[in-house]
Design goal:
Elements: E1 2-14, E2 32-43
Antiparallel strand pairs: 1-2
């Protein structure tokens, strides 16, 4: 069985509206964002070989 032991989350913002990178007719002042998540786990299952 696999257990999640820790979750790391980063909120990433890209202020592209300053230089108008990514701007178009629908998005005159775009700023983009994303979430980056890392799950840290431990497992009690025996390792399996892969070919």
């Amino acid at each position: 069985m696999t257990t999640i032991t820790r979750v790391d989350v980063q909120d990433i913002h890209v202020p592209t509206s300053r230089s108008l990178d990514g701007s178009d007719a629908m998005n005159a002042a775009p700023d983009y964002s994303a979430t980056h998540v890392v799950l840290h786990t431990v497992t009690t299952a025996a390792p399996r070989a892969t070919a």
